[in-house]
Each structure stands twice: as C-alpha cells, then as structure tokens.
Specification:
Elements (H helix, E strand, L loop, with lengths): L1 H17 L2 H10 L9 H32 L6 E2 L12 E2 L10 E10 L3 E12 L2 E13 L4 E17 L3 E12 L5 E15 L2 E12 L2 E14 L2 E12 L2 E13 L1
Antiparallel strand pairs: 1-2, 3-4, 3-12, 4-5, 5-6, 6-7, 7-8, 8-9, 9-10, 10-11, 11-12
C-alpha cells in the first residue's frame, strides 16, 4: 500500500504538467454568460447590456475616426520603396522624391520560443498611405503527456495611420477575429501600434490588439527590434498572448519582406 501511494505521489508532477494550457484557454474562450439559462428576463437584460457595450464600442470608434480625420496630420505623404531607402528616412516620404509609392504590401512570419509552439503569418496591404488592411493567422500547438492541443486564431483589420512621419508612424484599427477549433467564434477587435525609425538600419515596432470572444478576450502584445536589409527585415523581441485564462509569451524570431 505504501509503495502504491509513493508511486502515485511521484506521478503527480507529471499529471499536472500534462494538463493542457491550450485546452484551458479554449474552455475559457468558449464560455458564455452563466446567467443565460436562469430566466428570459435575465437573458434579455444581458442581451441589452451586451448591445449597449457594443454600441458604445463602435460609437467610440466612429468618434475617433471623425476626430482623427478632423485634426490628424493631413500633410501629403508617399510610401518609400522600403524602409531606409533614403538613409535618414523610414517608411513614409514627404512626396518630393521621384521614387515614392502610393501603395505597398508587406508580408512576414514569426515564431515564439515557448513550450507551446506559436507560429504566425501576417500581411499588411496599404492601398493608400492613410489606410492599411492587415491580415494575420496564429497557430498555437501544445504536446502534453497524454494528448496534443492546437488553437488557430485569424484576424482581419482596417488600420488608420493617424501619424505618417519620416521617422515614425502611429496607427489604430478595428476589425474582427475568428478563434477556431472547439471555440468556433467571431469577435470584434481593435488595435493600436507604432513604428519608429531612430537610425539606419534599425526600427522599433510596438503593437497591442484586443479581441472580444464570448465572455473572454484575446490580447496580443508585440515589441520588436528590426534590422533592415533593403526590402527584407529580420527581427527579434517579445510577444505576449493572453488567450482567455491562459498566457503564452516568449522571445520572438521573425522575417518580413516589403514589395
């Protein structure tokens, strides 16, 4: 009896380690309001509260858009063929150079070093210097003692580039995020970010994005240091993902290319 108890105690750490963080994340993101089945009046009240929240959310977005266009930097800008095409200028040009572009496309991929594998593919298309359409796909995978888990998150964003200067840009955006696997839910998303070009060939990227999925949320925070080699950029930094009740973070290694 003592031997069995000792063996059980020895295996407790392995059992705990085998518990899946991604499984917990999917459970928390799948949860809806626990009061939804109590009564029709409670359900109606919750629906009204949610409608009020989203009304306020989109009203704030509309206000920011109007305010941004009204007082934002309206000076003419063009896009450089690639960052630091001119030694002391980053992504945006004032429009007096013959090589400036009105549109651009940037694609990239990155990997976060963590016990949970995280691979992301992303693209940003700017049809005009003021607006960007950003798409991303994140795949998380985890291998435990007894099983494997995966979680896929895709988002599409419309970004407004509020400041477009030679040495930095600042944007915010809104869109939608889809969480797959057992969650299978769309949610509203907003984001803010900046790119800073202090000195050739280095730039800094900081961005934050929040998605509302059922009663939970998905937060993505990125801080990157990029090294530019003409149209190619190599980068490292730190990414933090809040997936419902669970957090995945670590050192990131990435690559991007500008067309």
């Amino acid at each position: 009896m003592k031997r069995k108890l000792l063996l059980f105690l020895c295996f407790i750490p392995f059992i705990l380690i085998s518990q899946s963080k991604l499984g917990n994340a999917k459970d928390s993101l799948s949860k809806q309001s626990s009061s939804g089945t109590t009564s029709n009046s409670n359900s109606s009240s919750r629906s009204s509260n949610n409608d009020g929240f989203f009304d306020d959310f989109f009203a704030q977005i509309l206000y920011d858009i109007t305010l941004g266009i009204g007082i934002g930097d309206a000076e003419y800008r063009e896009i450089s063929p690639y960052p630091y095409y001119y030694d002391k200028q980053g992504e945006y040009l004032k429009g007096f150079e013959d090589v400036g572009k009105r549109s651009s496309l940037r694609i990239g991929a990155n990997y976060v070093i963590n016990r949970i594998n995280s691979l992301e593919f992303n693209a940003v298309f700017k049809p005009i210097p003021l607006i960007g359409i950003e798409a991303s796909h994140l795949r998380f995978s985890e291998q435990t003692l007894f099983n494997s888990e995966s979680l896929n998150i895709s988002s599409i964003m419309l970004n407004y580039y509020r400041f477009r200067e030679q040495y930095f840009s600042v944007w915010w955006g809104f869109g939608a995020t889809y969480v797959g696997n057992e969650v299978d839910t769309w949610g509203g998303t907003f984001s803010v970010g900046t790119e800073i070009y202090p000195v050739k060939p280095i730039s800094l990227h900081i961005g934050w994005k929040r998605s509302f999925i059922n009663e939970g949320k998905v937060d993505v925070f990125k801080s990157q240091v990029k090294y530019h080699l003409k149209k190619t950029a190599l980068y490292t930094g730190y990414h933090n993902y809040q997936l419902g009740s669970e957090t995945v973070s670590g050192l990131v290694l990435g690559l991007e290319y500008t067309f």
